[in-house]
From TrEMBL:
It comes from the Bacteria. This is Uncharacterized protein. It comes from Bradyrhizobium frederickii.
Length: 573
């Protein structure tokens, strides 16, 4: 937004516009640079503190109540910057901040006025002391601002005493303040932790438990030497009959304070988080962030254990509930991804087997694994079982499926390798002659899988050679009529795919659409203010995408579907 100078605006005009409410319109238009004494921002503060106008009265003006969007945000920023420098009574300031916060709603901008109020209290500690005194006497308005007054005073002893002396909102405010006040040393921090820990216990109200857990984590992060003693105790109390709100705070605490969690505490929290309601989207987002943070660390196997448990059949969870974790697993360390896919494919759990296929990319982005099953503890029957499951669930992800079979060939005995080699030929190479064959052709001499891979490729070449009819029989060639039907079918299919893609696009409704009937260039005329319209030319270029259809999908689609179903349904012997 463009700002303009207020140098030509007199003090009388600013005062008049403030009294009429018109000054609210100026906030977004005029310069509010804090470093410029002549800016609207500084002149308003000066006139307010001199008693010439009441800047806080603008917050209660009907014009401000009608603001929304960027206009409200501009005002919110203006007042949040101004509040710490304004002279006003405690009552006036609390009421103004309350209006700003309520109008901000759930937006992050709602937090700005509270921070400004804390800074206002810190600028004159007598203000904070007065609010604490009113809150102690039971004043409802002061009680809602007690946290910020205590934080401004930086008095841990006072916050602890209020937490112990009261059982209402004042206790909650004091508990929160204990996490926001910086302890000067470990002894003060430990005194705060000793105050907080009993309130995390299951005997307390849910809100009290949540308000005690969060500051406990905050204090432990600032004093790691204390976390080894107090964090396990806090976690043990928190996971005893936890509510969904408490689980929310546990999940958020895990990803935001991960470095203070030892393996045992992580495991306890993740076990408790298995109890979350899968319909609560915000809670799932926090768990997702926690899982991703754990997956990136040295205890990443705990995140995989969690997913393996909650994604099992009948739990109500989907892999897409954990989008950040899914992205990290799918695009991160390839060896980790390989181990996860193998674990889920050999689990003999249909839900996890399906999730393994969802985790892998398909098409041009699919990257075959270059590894071995060595170290995974798989027996010969396990490798055959894995190969059949890989072909069943990843059949259309041909190169990745082939790489899983090759990984088994590199670690199994010869009898098992012979069985897996047969699976390479039928059904894989029997159906695919593109990416799967290209990948297998990269296996070099000296690789333990080489002999069986070459045998499968030779079998596939022989099979294709036997399909060649010499001489060609015209009776077996499709007629022009049949070819036209197939072309029309393909055209209708691709048109439907395009329409569906347009419906799902978040950008399609934001752009202008033009249909070019002919030519290879489009011209758009750009109209600029005060200038002649100028043409903008865009040359069109081609792009292409291809995918390979399994041969048997055309020759015997029912038989192929039954074969894939049989592979997926394989049971351990």
């Amino acid at each position: 937004m463009e700002n303009h100078s207020t140098a030509s605006t007199s003090d009388e005009e600013i005062i008049a516009r403030c009294n009429s409410g018109a000054l609210l319109d100026d906030i977004g238009r005029f310069d509010i640079d804090e470093s410029d004494p002549s800016s609207l921002f500084n002149r308003c503060i000066y006139l307010h503190n001199a008693g010439n106008l009441d800047l806080l009265a603008l917050i209660g003006h009907p014009k401000f109540a009608a603001f929304s969007g960027s206009a409200f945000f501009d005002c919110q920023i203006f007042f949040s910057k101004a509040i710490p420098r304004l002279r006003a009574s405690e009552r006036e300031m609390m009421r103004a901040v309350e209006i700003l916060v309520k109008k901000g709603g759930v937006d992050l901008a709602a937090n700005f006025p509270y921070e400004a109020f804390r800074n206002w209290c810190a600028a004159g500690l007598s203000r904070a002391e007065q609010i604490v005194a009113w809150a102690r006497s039971g004043d409802a308005e002061a009680m809602s601002f007690l946290t910020f007054a205590l934080t401004a005073l930086q008095d841990l002893s006072l916050a602890r005493s209020i937490a112990l002396d009261y059982i209402d909102e004042r206790r909650l405010s004091a508990l929160i303040a204990l996490g926001r006040i910086q302890a000067p040393d470990a002894s003060e921090a430990e005194a705060s932790l000793k105050t907080l820990l009993p309130f995390v216990a299951a005997s307390n109200d849910e809100t009290v438990r949540c308000n005690a857990l969060v500051p406990t984590l905050q204090v432990c992060e600032l004093f790691p030497s204390l976390s080894s003693v107090y964090l396990p105790a806090a976690i043990e109390s928190a996971i005893e009959t936890p509510s969904q709100d408490l689980l929310f705070n546990l999940a958020r605490g895990l990803w935001s304070h991960l470095k203070i969690f030892d393996r045992g505490s992580m495991e306890q929290v993740l076990t408790a988080l298995q109890l979350i309601d899968p319909t609560l989207e915000r809670l799932l987002q926090e768990v997702d962030m926690a899982l991703r943070a754990v997956a990136l660390g040295s205890n990443g196997d705990l995140a995989i254990d969690y997913l393996s448990e909650v994604l099992s059949f009948g739990t109500g969870f989907q892999l897409n509930n954990f989008k950040s974790t899914k992205h990290e697993l799918a695009t991160g360390n390839q060896e980790r991804l390989f181990r996860v896919v193998v674990r889920w494919l050999v689990s003999d759990n249909a839900a996890l087997e399906r999730v393994a296929s969802e985790l892998l990319r398909t098409g041009d982005d699919a990257q075959p694994f270059d590894t071995s099953t060595a170290g995974l503890g798989l027996t010969g029957p396990d490798c055959i079982f894995l190969s059949r499951k890989a072909l069943g669930w990843l059949f259309f992800n041909q190169s990745v499926a082939a790489s899983l079979l090759v990984a088994c060939l590199r670690d199994c005995d010869q009898a098992t390798a012979a069985e897996i080699g047969k699976l390479l030929f039928d059904p894989l190479l029997l159906n695919y002659g593109g990416k799967a064959r290209d990948y297998l052709a990269t296996i070099k001499r000296g690789d333990r899988a080489y002999r069986h891979v070459r045998k499968a490729i030779a079998s596939a070449d022989s099979y294709l050679a036997d399909l060649e009819l010499k001489p060609q029989l015209k009776e077996f060639r499709p007629s022009d009529y049949q070819r036209n039907i197939e072309r029309q079918h393909t055209h209708d299919f691709m048109r439907d795919v395009q329409k569906q893609a347009e419906k799902q696009s978040i950008l399609f409704n934001l752009v202008h659409r033009s249909v070019l009937l002919y030519g290879r260039r489009s011209i758009t005329y750009l109209h600029e203010h005060g200038k002649k319209a100028r043409p903008v030319r865009m040359d069109l270029h081609s792009f292409s995408h291809s995918y390979e259809i399994p041969r048997l999908q055309i020759i015997d689609p029912v038989g192929l579907s039954l074969r894939i179903f049989a592979l997926r349904s394989t049971k351990r012997k």
